[in-house]
Amino acid sequence: MLLTDVVWVSTETFGWWPAEIISQNKSEKPLRVQLFGDIPTKMVELDNTSGTFILPFRCDKSSEFLENGRNSDMKKIFKTAVSEAEEKETEENDGLPSEDYAFHKIVDSVDSTKPSKRRKITPEK
Questions:
Q1: CA-CA to 45 of 20 to 30 Å: which in 11, 22, 79, 124?
Q2: What is the pLDDT of residues 37-56, one digit of tens each?
Q3: Which residues 6+ apart lie within 8 Å of 89 measured at CB?
Q4: What is the topology classification, in CATH, of domain 6-93?
Q5: How far apart are the first and last CA of the chain?
């Protein structure tokens, strides 16, 4: 999994929450992230950086995380946190998805286990 600087982090208290990686080295453990929004716990350290606990901000599950956050008791704070994450991502990428995200989407869209389907083209007579 390729990580951008803006990510989703699974937290015990808030569920999936937008955050920014602040560790200089993304492979460093524990990986330090700072949660967006006005919440008491801003800094989180992750020993496990598998997709179970951290995902790129622009991932296939983003809409699910957004829906869950909008329906939570902390929806106002969550909305602010998402806005801050989007602003940070836009600032870093000139409004475009990060290169890591674009590469991640391309790699995920290619399923090497299935043979490619080729259409036979016959010339017109």
A1: 79
A2: 998 778 889 988 888 899 99
A3: 4, 5, 6, 57, 58, 98
A4: SH3 type barrels. (2.30.30)
A5: 50
pLDDT at 2 over 80: no
Indicate the burial class of 40 (C-beta count within 10 angstroms; 0-12, 13-18, 19 or more).
Answer: exposed
- At position 69, the amino acid (one-letter code) is G
Chain-centroid distance, C-alpha 47: 18
Q: Which two tokens stand for residue 87?
A: 């602003």
- In one-letter notation, the amino acid at residue 94 is D
Tell me the per-residue pLDDT of 24-33, one tens digit each, with 9 for 90 and over: 888 888 999 9
Q: Where do the structural domains in the chain lie, given as residue ranges?
A: 6-93
Partnered with residue 15 across adjacent β-strands are 11
